[in-house]
Amino acid sequence: MRRIRTRLPGRPLAVSVAVGAVLGLVSVPSATPSPRTTPAAAADNTATVFYYTKTRNWDRYNLHYAPDGGSWTTVPGVTMEAACTDWVKKTVTLGAAEGLRATFNDGAGTWDNNAGRNYALGTGTITVKDGVIAHSDPCGGDPDPAPEDGNRATVYYSTRTLGWTTANVHYQPAGGAWTTVPGAGMQAACAGWWKKDVELGTATSMKAAFNNGNGLWDNNKGADYTLPAGVTTVSDNTVTEDAGDPCADEAPDTRAPTAPAGVAARADGVSVVLTWEPSTDDTGVTRYQVTRTGGTRGDVVTDVGSTVFSDTNLEERTTYTYTVRAVDAAGNVSAASAAATATTGTKPPAPAAGKPLGTDPRKDPIYFVLTARFNDGDGSNNRGGSQHEKSGNAAGDDPMFRGDFKGLINKLDYIKGLGFPAVWITPVVLNRSDYDYHGYHGWDFYRVDPRLESAGASYQDLINAAHAKGMKIYQDVVYNHSSRWGAKGLFTPTVHGLRDSQWSWYYDEKQPGFEYDGLTVDPRSGKSYYNGDLWSTAEPTGNTCVNWGKPTGAKSPEGYTLYNCQWPSPTSGMFPKALYHTCWIGNWEGEDSRSCWLHEDLADFNTENAQVQNHLIGAYNKYIDMGVDGFRVDTAVHIPRTTWNRRFLPAIQDRVTQRHGAEAARNFFVFGEVASFVNDKWNRGSVNHSAQFFTWKERKEYSADDEKAALEMYEYEQQQGTGNQPTSTNAFLEGNAYHAPDRGRFSGMNVIDMRMHMNFGDASNAFHNGKDSDDSYHDATYNVVYVDSHDYGPNKSSERYTGGTDAWAENMSLMWTFRGIPTLYYGSEIEFQKGRKIDCGPSCPLATTGRAYYGDHVAGEVTSSDFSKVDSATGAVATTLAQPLVKHVQRLNQIRRAIPALQMGQYSTEGISGDMAFKRRYTSGGTDSFALVTVSGGATFTGVPNGTYTDAVTGDVRTVSNGTLSVAAPGKGNLRVYVLNGTGRIGTAGPYLK
């Protein structure tokens, strides 16, 4: 999102580990575990299902289930038996099935069926607690067993900063064997603490790691914990020996939250959206429990983490009633809210939800499109908005909302033919502003903007169509701000609007029953950008805006009288401080950059507020459920790292894991925009405003209050300064050897490489500047690298890159072979709009900018059966595909796709002479890929392994017997990629790679 500063009025692990999840946790890979943790095979699979009762309070508990591939039990299922406090259980035999589908009920018509999806459970020991599935025995035997002969370790483990709903300890007494993964279930001791007594026998200590039973691990940054006999606490990687009971002085929480208020239900087809005001509690509300009655399927209870619940797949033309209860961390449940009702309509045809492709994101170069400007597949959803005439777009018949999902679906083969396996699209949520085609003025975060959708070409259709072609969809998301008109379901300001002769063009009459959706045209006014639901001439009840409706004494550019409270702004008093910040940014490298507005159209969320957090988490869960493959995070720098690390990033991981599994979660790609437009390693000396800072987890504990924690973290890290920040070798070879990266300190967010972007006016500058910063990222091989974008060109240029075709080719050659994930802004493959101003708002036609409509260049038919391979093309798209940079990027994608070292490899410049020259290696399982690369200039590589090297560009074969290989300069834009034991030339010679 563009910033506009002016404003208008190695040690052995307990288990094998892979990519870091959140807060220093690691996920167990799907590969076969080490023998010490492999359970013995059983003749028949069984599942012991534990179900949490405290927040249900039913009289009876039944398990209604079907083994995978088998039939369901007869309703209501089998009776579950008491297990321990707050838990019931049932063990069932599954035969050869490797899992079961399940629901739970009270035998009297009330069901927990996972919001209509049923629960998908595996074998072994499984827990279902408030909608979350995990794997452990929550009872864990007698919490205070009689002492045995030998030593005992009493372990307390804190999950206060992790958000886990259960905890297991996986351990090995000294000299003994490891428990079977996931280990022994720990028992809840008090809020945020879990306890387990372990009999050590003659051992005096044990190795241990902790997990949530759902693939997230804390193994002490890869070293495992060493815990002695006696009482020990483990909190945020800190072990305290001979500790006291951390729960001893904590009075039990017996106070229930307040009942949710303001419950409202709105039907949309066969779905109902339920919203309510957040409850209050002395220790904090952790979730809500929604009970639905009505229809023929019985009552249903669903656990919800936010104050918005979307109930889908309901019966047609049926009235449903909803009540909501709040649940706190101790399991206290509030009284039920007042009931809300809604009547469904008819069911529209809808595609099935997708599933992320779940592969390593470093394999996938990215093609970035502004959906509304890429290609128009359906003219009926085109909209010009209130600025259609003023911008000059009308004169060119070029409405701002022109491209759509149908147009993108129609041209996926074009993108695939270029060789891109991933597509980054601009935000999809319903926007609301005067010029909102780009998607960064979100209003209804729970709804896809109808101006992008068509019959048979919904957002889900796009995701599914891309996946069918082996292509990923990365969705641009905004957590920092909404539109100036607030966020539907959270807060929408009421604006003073005087329909006099001056302002009648802007302020619409209220139309009963008409609701803004950006697409539907109001029959009375003929407009789709209706705002009659926002304005009022009478001062509203509870108004906080000062001098409501009084003239300000100023005039608009047209000479119209301006009134107080006419335009939302942070200082207008219109926005509640609990939900929105109420100041303008004064220092862009100061603390206020996280707590003030960027621009008048970007109302800054108070992201440290739990209600705001729940609203956003609930919204983006919807898109995770649809199967998107990752999120590009807009304006990430304007939210504190503590909030990302505590709230948003764990929520993403948890939801992907819950819906799509641990493998998909490990590879769900989150990359943030941390905009720093300087050539320094650290942004003007401020670590809090530097891209690499956001790739790290916190290194100390801060206040439990998120707002206080943000300030504490800011001050602490500023005092530490740039010289005392964490460093990493994850991107670097050790000599010629690849080493397993340490994921233990990864925050969960990767970033756009702003320093390379800033220096891509010259490829050599980009290379050396990027290399200089790489030790300060958690893992620079995940950096997203581009030359220009929808915001800026290199060196903060406001124009699309215009360095020339040869320079473009050189930049591409570097991006596709150096560490990081190459990304191309739509049209750059033909130098589209080079030298044009990227964005001028509504003051000039879009056709004259870097955000011009691209569809004319891809008109015609194109088919691609594989990446970088075009089977047929006719019309304008055939001409486009014949351009020199198109041929260049196609072959670069071919070469990169064939050589793992260029995708995921670590790199080094040790022993290498030459400007842009480096070696890369990736080793995993049976793969060992080693490549020597030089871009444009010549190079000499010394100290490299002996053997046969083949250039992937020319097919030249060299035998190295003395550790040295010299390469002549291939020419600007060209490169050489000598691969040890390479298979030969990849692709055919083109205008640059030859």
Please give a structural write-up.
This protein is an alpha+beta fold and about 1000 residues long. The strands form 13 sheets. Strands 3, 4, 7, 8, 9, 24, 25, 27 and 28 form a 9-stranded mixed sheet that branches. Helix 5 (about 610-625) runs parallel beside helix 6 and helix 11 runs parallel beside helix 13. The chain is globular and about 80 Å long.
Write the layout of secondary structure elements.
Elements (H helix, E strand, L loop, with lengths): L25 E2 L17 E8 L9 E6 L10 E2 L1 E4 L2 E9 L4 E6 L4 E3 L6 E3 L2 E6 L2 E3 L16 E8 L9 E6 L10 E2 L1 E4 L2 E9 L3 E7 L4 E3 L6 E4 L1 E6 L2 E4 L19 E8 L2 E7 L7 E9 L5 E6 L3 E4 L7 E10 L11 E4 L22 E4 L1 H4 L30 H6 L1 H7 L3 E4 L3 E3 L10 E7 L10 H10 L3 E7 L2 E2 L12 E2 L38 E2 L14 E5 L5 E3 L39 E2 L5 H17 L3 E5 L6 H20 L1 H5 L2 E4 L33 H15 L29 E2 L2 H5 L4 H11 L10 E2 L19 H13 L3 E5 L35 E3 L8 E3 L1 H6 L2 H15 L1 H5 L1 E3 L3 E2 L3 E8 L2 E9 L3 E4 L4 E5 L5 E4 L3 E4 L7 E6 L14
Parallel strand pairs: 2-10, 8-25, 12-20, 29-30, 29-44, 30-33, 33-40, 35-36, 40-41, 41-42, 43-44
Antiparallel strand pairs: 1-18, 2-6, 3-4, 3-7, 5-6, 7-8, 7-9, 10-11, 12-16, 13-14, 13-17, 15-16, 17-18, 17-19, 20-21, 22-23, 23-26, 24-25, 24-27, 27-28, 31-32, 34-39, 37-38, 45-46, 47-49, 48-51, 49-50, 50-55, 51-54, 52-53, 52-55
Helix pairs in contact: 5-6, 11-13
Pfam family, one: fn3
InterPro entries: CBM25 (IPR005085), FN3_dom (IPR003961), FN3_sf (IPR036116), GH (IPR017853), GH13_cat_dom (IPR006047), Glyco_hydro_b (IPR013780), Ig-like_fold (IPR013783)
Cofactor: Ca(2+)
